[in-house]
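Possible regression after last week's pipeline update?

I re-ran a chain I had predicted before the update to compare outputs. Posting the input and the new output here so someone can diff against the archived version. Not blocking, just want to make sure nothing changed silently.
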Amino acid sequence: MAGKHGWPVQLAMVPWVNDVAGGDLDIELTLLAVPDGVNMSIELLSVGVCAHTGGTTLLADLEWVDDSASDVVALLATAVDIDDITDRIWNEIWTGTQRLDPGDTVNLALTGFDTGSSVGYTFIVEFRIVERSGN
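New output (post-update):
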């Protein structure tokens, strides 16, 4: 599929606050989605996280759900230790290039254990819209 870069790099910020008082965590956040029926793709460039407070044992899997392949899930990054990041600065989860077509999503699966304190994170997604030609 031919394409051209017609848009500058953009950032999407997805905040998440875990205010559950203790216990196991098993959640999934959608970080980015390409609408069905549009004449564009998205080029995913990086995903990072900024922690605002600590107190959680947390692992993250970054997933690409490919709609054109019957919702097949591919892991872009696995078992990233969110505990091992520096607070209040951007920390890399994944960097690369992944083309997302209409219907595709990028999700972050978070598992771990909350210590009981409120924890805040902002997940930062760097991407570029790519116009599709010939459709």
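Follow-up from reviewer: compared with the archived run. The mean pLDDT is 84. Marking as no regression found.
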